[in-house]
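It would be a great kindness if you could assist me with a short task in structural biology. The matter concerns a single protein, recorded as an amino acid sequence and a row of backbone structure tokens. Could you please explain, in whatever detail you think fit, how the structure tokens follow from the sequence? Thank you for your consideration; the sequence and its tokens are set out here:
___
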Amino acid sequence: MRTGRSSVATIAVTAVVTLAATACGVPVQTRPVALSASQLPAGLTGASTTTTLRGSSTPVSLIQVYFVAGDRLVARSRLVPSPGSLPEALADLLAGPTPAESAAGIRTTIDPATELISERVIRNRVVLDVSQTFADTGGPDQILAIAQFVYTVTGIQTGVNAVSFELGASPVAVPTANGTLLSAPVGRADYSSLFTATSQPGTSGPF
């Protein structure tokens, strides 16, 4: 948290998340959306894998972004130019699920008008400065939205295990999975009850 700033703001929470979710298969599309795991080159199904797709000389990496099914976080893979970066992961997160994923019941709880102002890596944590619109979501969906950011960021950035949030450059306290407000950085352990590993139905990307 930066020094010299006004007192920490608080994002209000009105409810605690009730846990339940399902995972659905995603059909293959003709546009650059989901591919089944069997259609990927050998070795491309693991996290942080780098390869070159047939017909392209551009090395690509498989990264994971986190959305929501029911009331649980679910991981979905994206193909990005290697080696894969934090800005790319955040851009894919804010872009939301593909049409095929949405049709399968995958959603995002991040307000679509939310803008990422900046991201800064400070030792083992990332500071995300997001627009005030991010605070418009309340209750359980707000907790899930924060968890989406935390899981995506800590999965892509090597050595990072915590995330701090700012709204328009002002530090804010955020709710954990049980509704407790924390002004300190938060990590996956604070939202682990919202995530259960599930099968990966597919991958999307610009290749």
User: Anything to note?
Assistant: Residues 1-10, 12-48 have pLDDT under 50 and may be disordered.
